[in-house]
């Protein structure tokens, strides 16, 4: 559904997290939506893990996490609104 990602796929034969991040920063609606959905999913899983294990710190890394505000905002929103178990 994304012209930017379609062009990238046609050129390289695959799409990476970096490609999605670059497309989102360029205003690609599909990529922004994908990062938001991913953030909600990760936030939901982290909420469950935090409620179960009660860790003192959570360390995340990788190219998707370094994508900036779009993914992390969605992750934080989902995580903070999840009810404790």
Shape: elongated
Main sheet: strands, sense, barrel: none
**SSE-based structural type:** mainly alpha
Report mean pLDDT, rounded to a whole number: 87
Strand content: under 5%
Quaternary structure type: single chain
Number of helices: 4
User: How many beta-strand runs?
Assistant: 0
Task: Explain how this protein is built.
The protein is mainly α. The longest helix is centred in the middle third of the chain and has 25 residues.
Write a concise synopsis of the structure shown.
The protein has helices spanning 3-12, 17-25, 29-53, 69-81. With 85 residues, it is an all-alpha fold.
Keywords:
4 helices
SSE diagram, text form:
Blueprint lengths: L2 H10 L4 H9 L3 H25 L15 H13 L4
Helix pairs in contact: 2-3, 3-4
């Amino acid at each position: 559904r994304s012209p930017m990602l379609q062009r990238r796929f046609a050129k390289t034969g695959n799409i990476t997290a970096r490609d999605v991040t670059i497309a989102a920063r360029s205003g690609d609606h599909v990529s922004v939506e994908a990062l938001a959905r991913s953030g909600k999913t990760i936030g939901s899983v982290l909420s469950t893990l935090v409620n179960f294990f009660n860790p003192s710190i959570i360390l995340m890394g990788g190219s998707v996490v370094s994508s900036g505000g779009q993914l992390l905002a969605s992750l934080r929103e989902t995580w903070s609104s999840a009810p404790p178990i």
